[in-house]
C-alpha cells in the first residue's frame, strides 16, 4: 500500500517538534519581510502567506512572528533518513510531503508517533487526497476498489492541497459545487477550460493513477555517530575522530555537503557546510566538519552525542589522454588524410612584404609534441622558438631570426 505523510507546513511542524511550547499557537514565519509559513491557528485569524510582517501583526494582535528556521532544509534531509530506517521505499515530493510503502498498521503508528496526517491507498494520488482529509495524528485508509466512493463524498476544498487555488475554489462554489464527486462529472476539456489549474487536477480526478513508491536512493550519504559515555568538549580531537570515520566511509568517493548534529547541556545543535570543491581527503573532510561545528554553536560545548553526515556523494572523474604517446593520434590522422594539417614557419616578422616573412609546410608526426615556451620573463628582444631543428630557409632577406630555428605557430 502507498502511504502519503504530510509534515506541513514543514517549518511550522519542525519548530513545534523542537519547541513543544509553540504548538497550538498562532505562529507565522517570515523571511525577507514577508510571511512564508503559517500555522492553522494563524490562518483562522486572517493571516495569509505573502503578507508583510507589519500587516500580519496588525491583522492579528496575538500573532507570534518568528524568522524562518535556517536549518529547515537540513532537518528535512535528516527526517528522510529517519524514515529510511523504517522502510527503504521513501519518495519525497516536496518539503513536508513524502510517499512511503507501509501497511495500514504501520501508517497508523507513523501518524501517531509524528503527529502528522497520513493517507493510505493502493494509488499515489488517492493516498495524497486521503492524507489531506485526515486529522493530525490520524491515518485514513481507502480500501482498494472504494476509491470512487471516497472521492464522491470528499469535500471540494480539500483539492487545495493538490493544486486548486482560492480563485478556482470560489468559481466552483459559485456553481453550487461542494463535493469532489460533483466535479467528476466534468470532462477533462471542461476542467481545463474553466479552471486555470485544471491540468494539475486531472491526474487526481480522471487519472491515470499510479501505484508504487520509488526506492530511496541508497548510498547518498555516509554517517558517523558517536554516543559518548562521558561529556566531551567539541574540539579538534573529536573532529579528528569524526573525520577519520567519515573518510573511511567514503571509500574513494567525494562528498559536497557535510552536516553535524550534537546534543549537550539539554540543547540540540545543528550546522552544515556546503563545500566549494569535492571533499575527498581526510584533511578536507575535517576542515568542512569544523566549519559546520562552528556554525552550529557546539564548538567548545560539553557534548553527549555527536552525529556527522556527508552527502552529495559521487565518484570523481579523471580526464586521461586518448593516446599513450604524443603523436599517436596524429599519425593515424595524417596517414588517412595526408596534407590535412599545415604548419606556419615565421621566417622574418620584419619582412618588407608579408609573403617573405613566413611559409607553409605540411605537419609531420614528429611535430606533435612541440616544446613549450620557457617560463618566466623572456630576455629583451628574444622570442620563444620551437619546431624542427633545421635552419630557416626561404627567399626572405636576413632578419632578426636569420640563422635561428624556425618559429612555429600551430
UniProtKB/TrEMBL annotation:
- The signal peptide here is none
Q: Which residues form the UmuC domain?
A: 17-51
Which Pfam families is this protein grouped with?
A: IMS
Instruction: Please provide the record's keywords in A-Z order.
Output: Plasmid
**InterPro entries per UniProt:** DNA/RNA_pol_sf, UmuC
Q: Where is the composition biased (Low complexity)?
A: 370-379
Cross-referenced PROSITE patterns: UMUC
Where is the stretch described as Disordered?
370-410
Lineage: superkingdom: Bacteria
**Full protein name:** UmuC domain-containing protein
Q: Whose protein is this, by species?
A: Thermus brockianus
